[in-house]
Amino acid sequence: MGLNPGVPAPHASPADLPRPVPELWGGADGRTQSYFVSDYDPTIEDSYTKICNIDGIPTRLDILDTAGQEEFGAMREQYMRTGEGFLLIFAINDHGSFNEINKFHTQILRVKDRDEFPMILVGNKADLDMQRQVPKEEALAFARENRIPYMEASAKIRLNVDESFHEVVRAIRRFQEQESPPAPTAHPTSKESKGCPCCIL
Asked: How far apart are CA 21 and CA 42, in angstroms?
């Protein structure tokens, strides 16, 4: 049950694909891959690349997972500087993992020198609702306070796995559109500009 958000465009190579190349980091609740990708081996991998189609746009995801690994602690800010978007992941059955999220969120904004940045808060292990330690309202309150989307996911029942990656890519596209408005083209039309509002090339 691996990540399968879409089908790559035929014959497209990573160099041909639209940018940005988002780097996603699973914070607090361990490894993004180990929760969302069943064939991930944490002994030999801490990052991987996936090419998928999101809203009709071929996109390369460079997914880097540093959380829960002591050896990456000193390099965490470096990864935050290069990351274009972040998944902040905690386990709904582990309040300690949720407590770590505020630290990571604050650190990302400090490193980026921003008041806001593309992030998605993900409550993982939604299939363990009977063991829930983090009330949904508590997670939603944090998300509202920090103006980031919140969703709950479960690899076991395949809930919002692909969607969490899709949403952070959409957040990256919106952010980069706001930061870098498209340059005028030789044939600008209002219909064309509205036709692909999330396309960052």
From this structure: 23
Q: Of 172, 121, 117, 171, which Cα lies nearest the Cα of 151? A: 121
Site of tokens 């991930």? 40
Structural domain includes residue 5: no
pLDDT band, residue 191 (cuts 50/70/90): very low
Number of domains in the chain: 1
Summarize pLDDT for 75-100 with one digit per residue, the tens: 778 778 888 888 898 999 999 989 98
Distances (CA, A) of 12 to 8, 30, 57, 169: 7, 32, 11, 19
Q: Identify the three-state secondary structure at position 33.
A: helix
Q: Is residue 99 part of a domain?
A: yes
